[in-house]
Specification:
- By secondary structure, the protein is an all-alpha fold.
- The chain has one domain.
- Helices cover 78% and strands 0% of the residues.
- The chain is globular.
- Keywords: Cell membrane, Membrane, Transmembrane, Transmembrane helix.
Amino acid sequence: MNDYNQEKETSKLKKWLQILLVSTRLGLTSFGGPIAHLGYFHEEYVRKKKWLNEQNYSDLVALSQFLPGPASSQVGIGIGIIRGGIIGGIISFLGFTLPSVLALIVFAILINQGIVDDSGWIHGLKIVAVVIVAHAILGMAKNLTPDTKRKLIALFALLLTLLWPNLFAQMIGIVLSAFIGFLLYKNVNQSDSTQTTSIYPISKKWALICLSIFFGLLLFLPILKELTSIQWIAMFDSFYRSGSLVFGGGHVVLPLLEKEFVPSGMISAEDFLAGYGATQAVPGPLFTFAAYIGTIMGGWSGGLLATFAIFLPAFLLILGTLPFWDILRQHSKLKGALMGINAAVVGILISAFYAPIWTSAIVSPVDFALAAVLFSLLVFLKQPPWLIVIIGALAGFIIYGF
């Protein structure tokens, strides 16, 4: 029995180490924003590692679209939980997030010595993001929109989010697509997606505790802020609220943070914009911009506090909803709605692929040519994504200069 327990513990440690290595590599190489991150995740976790299948991945992405906070980080946490439990989710989050957090803390500390402006190698990384996302969309579209009805649902979500770039367009598109999918596929029996056991090792009791903490902090932190004059509590409240109320990913949180800290004089407009530029130059989630602002305001410890506060809601929400989502996705009458949601996710990804990923990266024939070469290396010659990142950065440096 002792040998069995020891073998079990060794297996857990091995899984946790795998999660750390893979998530850290992604944290060092995943440029391009949340939609690009989903492409990197799909390539690494679904195609290469096969830690989860297409259906489970698309369901996890769909859930992340419903929740406020950084979608790609929540997907990464969910994958870590599937692979290694709650500790696996924490490790996955740390591996993916810490590289950019540390880089932005250094940027903030050295802010008076100059900031990295948009340069050739950064433009090359934007083109890499185009390639990674295009590859992911092709794979997901093949599996999630195999028939005409789901292709039309994806087209509806694409048109809605592309032509109406509203903060709530994604949520409205997903809700309407779920209703359409329910009507069209309520009598369809998807035997290939039936799942008899939960893939999320989280109890409903633990999930309810996490949801209670989430709403409790959201309610009581502003009260505590008013009752005290402690700067750290005020900072924690501001970053926690920003992380709790953002739908649409990292680009949306930036104006919220600007409104929270610039008018009050806690950070100057010039430093804010400089930090925004630095955030675009590092991999990982855009929410790590909080680490930069926190460091400007309170040194490296302020940066770590801001990072913890802005990501805490995402962690509590994903832990609090996964067990219930797992139950809903297995309900026979709701499978049609999930089919509609998954099709909508494809359309939303295509919309985000065009703007801002394509429009900010492909601005000349040379850009398109480089994207075509990188796409061929990734798809036809089966080169790993990390190598594509290196080649793209070097090509951008050579073509456009430093």
